[in-house]
Amino acid sequence: xxxxxxxxxxxxxxxxxxxxxxxxxxxxxxxxxxxxxxxxxxxxxxxxxxxxxxxxxxxxxxxxxxxxxxxxxxxxxxxxxxxxxxxxxxxxxxxxxxxxxxxxxxxxxxxxxxxxxxxxxxxxxxxxxxxxxxxxxxxxxxxxxxxxxxxxxxxxxxxxxxxxxxxxxxxxxxxxxxxxxxxxxxxxxxxxxxxxxxxxxxxxxxxxxxxxxxxxxxxxxxxxxxxxxxxxxxxxxxxxxxxxxxxxxxxxxxxxxxxxxxxxxxxxxxxxxxxxxxxxxxxxxxxxxxx
Length: 291
Description:
The protein is mainly alpha-helical and 291 residues long. It has helices spanning 19-23, 25-39, 49-68, 71-74, 78-100, 102-105, 107-112, 119-145, 153-183, 186-200, 208-214, 219-226, 229-242, 258-283, 287-290. Helix 3 packs across helix 5, helix 5 (78-100) runs antiparallel to helix 8 and helix 9 packs parallel to helix 14. The radius of gyration is 21 Å and the shape is globular.
């Protein structure tokens, strides 16, 4: 009886989850290139839209919230405060939305060949991050030339930490909703609601001090508010870009118990990543059939 050595073969669909992404780095680069090249295909302005959209969004918020509602009188250098928070929320909203629809938008590949399905949401997140970089560049240039910002090791560390926190959180919930969205397209509507909430549940159009004052008798609600990874990341960006540009008397400082808030946000991001990967692995078995 002839014995067939199957050690060189792999059982389809039995991968190692996110760890397989490192084995398929070449495919990941191809998917990222596809994502970025198709984004502005047949567009007259192309990559210029990456600058136009956040600029228009900033101007609308600044005119309505800053001028009409008078926030520029309460926050020194309010344009810098506003924009340094908007870029974080924009990264979250764009990457989260792209990751959610990544499996469905690549259904032709999912149905025809086997490859780690995690490649699709991760490629979508990386693609969104690439399109976030022009916004970060604008923030850096404006804060340096207009407000006299000088980068420091601490500010660079805060930016890196904030981006790592946001991207880790996005990866977790992106895996979760991209898997759910394959079978239940209602997930995309839930994601839109979450993206809307994210814009208003972080201190970009107001300050954390306002939230702290109105939650004086329900302090647990403020702690819950500050446990949001996006809120923590926004505050880290404020301390990296805005606080060094204003006088010491006008700085807001860190919220009380910020260390615990950061720890909570990191814990939520890690929990989201674990749950997202688990749900994704359980759901990917039927992706081809559901699509």
